[in-house]
Write a structure and sequence with these properties.
alpha/beta; about 270 residues; globular; Rossmann fold; five-stranded antiparallel sheet; six-stranded mixed sheet; about 25% strand
C-alpha cells in the first residue's frame, strides 16, 4: 500500500471559536475514506484545512511526501479536485460548466478551450451520465443532477484525489446511491483516491473502506469501517443508542436506531 496523503499534527480552525487539535492520519492511494462525526465535531474544518480554504496554524500536509506548502495553486488544482456541498448555479450550459475543470491546465493568454479539453469534458459527462444535458443551462437542473455535473467538472481536472463535502446531502435515496455507486466505480476502476465528508453512517459503512470519526475537534477513532462503526464508539460520540449488525449481503456494518418509546419499553395502543 502506497501512502498518498499524510496529515501530520495539523492545527487549524477559527481562533477564539473552534480549532482542530493535532490531527494525524494518512490516506493510501486508491482508498475510499469517509470523514464522519456529529455536527460541530470538526469535519468541515478538517476538510477546509486539507483543501487550503483555511490556513494551517501548525503541522503539515504531505502529498506523495512533498509538503503542500511547496505547491502553487495551479499545481494543487491538478492534483486535488473539490466538490463542495453548496454548488453555485451559474447561468451557463452544462458543457461550459464542466469545461471550467480545465482551468488549471490553461497556458498564459490561452482564452479558448482545446480539442483535448472538449474530449475530456465529453468523456466525464458521459461517465457521470449527464452528457444529455450538455446544452442545458446548469441552473435549470435538479440538485441531484447538479451534483453529478459538479463531479464531472471535478473529474475533468483529472485529479489524483477527489475531495467531496457531503455529496449526498439533501438528496433522495435514488440520487444518493447513484452518486455513491459512481464514486465507488471511479475508485475501483481508476484507482482514484476519494475523501468524503458524509453524515449518513449507513452509507459511510457501505461505501467507505476507511473511516475517520471526528469528535470535539480531534479524531476519536480511525480505521476500517468495521473497526470504527461499532455501537460503543457511535454511542460515545453521537450520544445516541444504536444497534450495529453486519449487512448479510455486503458484510459491511449497518447501524440501527432505537426510538425513545422502545427504549422506555412503551408500546402505543
Amino acid at each position: 500500500m502506497k501512502r498518498q496523503l499524510e496529515i501530520e499534527n495539523i492545527v487549524c480552525g477559527y481562533p477564539g471559536k473552534f480549532m482542530l487539535k493535532s490531527i494525524n492520519f494518512e490516506v493510501i492511494k486508491g482508498s475510499f475514506t469517509g470523514i464522519i462525526g456529529p455536527n460541530g465535531s470538526g469535519k468541515t474544518t478538517l476538510f477546509r484545512g486539507i483543501t487550503g480554504e483555511i490556513p494551517i496554524n501548525s503541522g503539515n500536509i504531505y502529498f506523495k511526501n512533498r509538503n503542500l506548502k511547496e505547491f502553487t495553486i495551479k499545481q494543487k488544482a491538478q492534483k486535488f479536485a473539490i466538490v463542495t456541498q453548496k454548488i453555485e448555479t451559474p447561468n451557463i450550459t452544462v458543457e461550459e460548466y464542466v469545461l471550467m475543470g480545465r482551468f488549471p491546465y490553461k497556458k498564459p493568454f490561452q482564452f479558448l478551450e482545446t480539442t483535448e479539453d472538449f474530449r475530456l469534458a465529453e468523456k466525464y459527462m458521459k461517465m457521470t451520465g449527464v452528457f444529455k444535458y450538455k446544452d442545458t443551462l446548469f441552473s435549470e437542473l435538479s440538485g441531484g443532477e447538479q451534483q453529478l455535473i459538479s463531479i464531472a467538472k471535478a473529474l475533468t481536472q483529472e485529479p489524483e484525489i477527489l475531495l467531496l463535502d457531503e455529496p449526498t446531502s439533501h438528496l433522495d435515496i435514488a440520487h444518493q446511491v447513484r452518486i455513491l455507486n459512481l464514486l465507488q466505480r471511479l475508485n475501483n476502476q481508476y484507482d482514484l483516491t476519494v475523501i468524503m465528508i458524509i453524515h449518513d453512517l449507513n452509507l459511510a459503512g457501505e461505501y467507505c473502506d476507511n473511516i475517520v470519526m471526528m469528535n470535539n475537534g480531534h479524531i476519536h477513532k480511525s480505521g476500517s469501517a468495521s473497526d470504527v462503526l461499532n455501537y460503543e464508539d457511535i454511542e460515545e460520540v453521537y450520544k445516541t443508542p444504536v444497534v450495529t449488525r453486519e449487512n448479510p449481503i455486503s458484510k459491511k456494518p449497518a447501524i440501527f436506531l432505537i426510538s425513545e418509546r422502545v427504549l422506555q419499553g412503551k408500546q402505543k395502543t
